[in-house]
Specification:
This protein has 335 residues and is α+β, with helices and mostly antiparallel strands. The protein has three domains: 64 residues, Uridine Diphospho-n-acetylenolpyruvylglucosamine Reductase, domain 2, CATH 3.30.43.10; 113 residues, 2-Layer Sandwich (Uridine Diphospho-n-acetylenolpyruvylglucosamine Reductase, domain 3), CATH 3.30.465; 104 residues, Uridine Diphospho-n-acetylenolpyruvylglucosamine Reductase, domain 1, CATH 3.90.78.10. Helix content is 24%, strand content 29%. The strands form six sheets. The chain has a five-stranded antiparallel beta sheet with strand order 6-7-12-10-11, with helices on one face. Strands 1-2-5-3 form a four-stranded mixed beta sheet. A four-stranded antiparallel beta sheet has the order 13-19-18-17, with helices on one face. A hairpin with a 6-residue loop joins strand 18 and strand 19. The longest helix is centred in the C-terminal third of the chain and has 19 residues. It is globular. The protein binds flavin-adenine dinucleotide and NADP nicotinamide-adenine-dinucleotide phosphate (NAP). The site of NADP nicotinamide-adenine-dinucleotide phosphate has 16 residues, from strand 8 and strand 13. NADP nicotinamide-adenine-dinucleotide phosphate binds next to strand 8 and strand 13.
Length: 335
């Protein structure tokens, strides 16, 4: 067990915030984590790939970096493969493991940064697929009681970019591993965003999960800022879900407004469009900005601090509220 002191977290968060952890430990198994707990009893903060976090201050307790490895086929039945992955595995590596073996279901989720352990936290999603669609179970350790508990899909209470770990049980458990249920016979999801057009441009004649993963990778590489180049944590806000009556009223005033129908008389608005209409797209103040190609993504051009990004997000929330009467919710976790 090694615990470092006063470690800069700049290399460990994709926003590139230069905050410090008073103590910093890595663990590769539940036993290693328990050993750290035996010797430390200060406040701990768990980190995966650091791609969904905005640090606004130093971590005064101990930062625990989850590096639990392993991807393993543990079972199969007539229609499914069951694959268990350690929380510290890189998400995209896991996706490609599945694509390489023709285990279908995660191809639309290619190239999402971060680790397997955080994927159920906000039920990651892209291009019409969410982790809940392939989730089978997870094991997590209760931080206070130190017992390990399994969670089924229902127990995780998945919602749009939500789970029980972001709400009722926030900060109570550390996820150790996740088991996914992949399909033997693929069901292709190509109706979302630019996937169809990209597949056509690639000259794809016959669909396959590899072709879809490749199309998603190409679209993402062309559209989203690479955190290696410009600090960011992906979409800073969730797409708001509003009542369809409100949507109809907004549509009268703003005929170009983008909305997608949901069940139960709800409509999902494209938050990026709302932000763009308020004039924020491409905005920059010092090193804090709103990305020029995707207004949902707030960026750090170099030396912005967490408070500056947070302040910008508050201004954006205020202006969207006063123009459209809709309150944006942050998707990124703020520390
Ligand atoms: P971290 O940022 O390390 O942690 C996020 C939160 O989860 C923190 O509160 C942390 O304490 C907690 N946490 C992490 N691991 C554990 C664990 N094992 N147990 C308990 N708590 C834990 N998200 C999408 O949903 N869809 C996208 O398409 C998408 N695209 C993105 C594109 C870019 C360029 C970027 C930078 C981000 C994008 N994201 C997207 C957001 C992000 O990649 C995901 O939310 C990802 O799952 C975060 O994983 P992470 O390991 O980096 O989490
Ligand atoms: P896009 O294709 O330009 O679409 C804009 C928004 O419209 C998306 O946020 C998406 O909502 C919604 N949308 C598009 N087609 C839809 C359809 N057929 N039905 C319902 N909703 C539809 O989006 P983008 O920015 O390039 O992102 C592409 C995908 O990657 C999206 O799913 C997005 O969520 C995901 N992504 C997420 C993050 C993150 O950090 N969370 C970052 C980058 C990209 P949804 O977001 O609800 O899917």
């Amino acid at each position: 067990m090694r615990i470092d002191e006063n470690v800069s977290l700049k290399p460990y968060n994709t926003f590139g915030m230069d905050v410090f952890a008073r103590k910093f430990a890595r663990f590769s198994s539940a036993d290693e984590l328990l050993e750290i707990f035996e010797h430390q009893n200060e406040e701990c903060f768990f980190l995966g790939g650091g791609s969904n976090i905005l640090f606004t201050r130093n971590v005064n307790g101990i930062l625990m970096k989850n590096e639990i490895p392993g991807i393993e086929l543990i079972n199969s039945d007539a229609d499914h493969y069951y694959v268990k992955a350690g929380a510290g595995e890189n998400w995209h590596r896991f996706v490609m493991y599945c694509v390489d073996r023709d285990y279908a279901g995660v191809e639309n989720l290619a190239l999402i940064p971060g680790n397997v352990g955080a994927s159920p936290m906000q039920n990651i999603g892209a291009y019409g697929v969410e982790v809940k669609d392939v989730f089978y179970a997870l094991e997590a350790l209760h931080i206070k009681d130190k017992h390990i508990r399994s969670f089924t899909r229902d127990e995780c209470k998945f919602g749009y970019r939500e789970s029980i770990f972001k709400s009722e049980l926030k900060g109570e458990y550390v996820i150790l591993n996740v088991t996914f249920r992949l399909l033997k016979k693929p069901v292709y999801h190509t109706g979302y965003g630019a996937i169809k057009a990209e597949l056509e441009m690639m000259g794809v004649q016959e669909l396959s999960i590899r072709n879809i993963a490749n199309a998603v990778i190409k679209i993402r590489q062309s559209k989203l800022p690479d955190p290696e180049v410009i600090g960011n944590a992906g979409s800073f806000f969730k797409n708001p879900e509003i009542e369809s009556d409100l949507f109809k009223r907004l549509e009268k005033e703003f005929p170009d407004i983008i909305g997608y129908s949901l069940p139960a008389q709800k409509v999902k608005l494209a938050a990026g469009w709302l932000i763009e209409q308020c004039g924020w797209k491409g905005y920059r103040n010092g090193d804090a900005g709103c990305h020029a190609r995707q207004a949902l993504v707030l960026v750090n051009y170099g030396n912005a601090n967490g408070a500056e990004i947070l302040q910008l997000s508050e201004k954006i929330i205020d202006s969207v509220r006063s123009k459209f009467g809709v309150t944006l919710q942050r998707e990124v976790n703020v520390y």
